[in-house]
Design goal:
By secondary structure, the chain is mostly beta strands. It contains 1 helix and 15 strands. The longest helix has 6 residues.
Length: 170
């Protein structure tokens, strides 16, 4: 079975180059590729892009465009906003933690795996950390949904490992 084109999106970064992002599917496997608009034969597999230190020096992180102001080391959702564990509609949005403060329309790095350190944290080592409302806490929320984002390694470091969310019954 050969590759079949599924989707094609074009992005202009405001300069002279345009990047096309195309998805192809073979069976149940979907792969995305970056194409240079000047030479459609030049492509980079998106998985290689994000896992290759030449392209992305941090394979445990990615980038997102923010749609509301977000403080440094805050949780971030796929919609570029801070998800809220009290809102069931946010249950599947959490994708990681932003690594710097961001304003609307900023593109920032977020971490979804590995270690994240913040000198302002004061975690109890070895305990899980949850999204509780719009903040991080050792205390699991009592409404909405529970999602563990990782475990504290020490007072200033989390080992990120986002788990499946669990809907709470009220």
């Amino acid at each position: 079975m050969g590759w079949t084109k599924q989707d094609n999106k074009t992005y202009n970064n405001g300069k002279t180059n345009v990047i096309q992002l195309r998805a192809f599917r073979v069976g149940d496997v979907e792969r995305w590729f970056f194409y240079d608009s000047d030479n459609s034969d030049v492509k980079i597999d998106i998985l290689d892009f994000f896992n290759n230190p030449v392209f992305n020096p941090n394979p445990n992180a990615s980038f997102i465009t923010i749609t509301e102001s977000i403080p440094e080391f805050s949780p971030v959702g796929i919609d570029g906003k801070i998800p809220d564990s009290n809102k069931i509609e946010d249950r599947f949005k959490l994708i990681g933690l932003v690594t710097s403060a961001a304003a609307i329309n900023d593109t920032v790095q977020y971490r979804y795996n590995g270690e994240a350190s913040n000198q302002n944290w004061n975690w109890t080592p070895g305990l899980p950390v949850f999204l509780n409302g719009k903040t991080l806490s050792h205390n699991a929320p009592k409404n909405g949904f529970i999602i563990e984002i990782g475990v504290s390694k020490d007072a200033k470091t989390l080992i990120l490992n986002i788990k499946e969310s669990i809907k709470l019954f009220s």
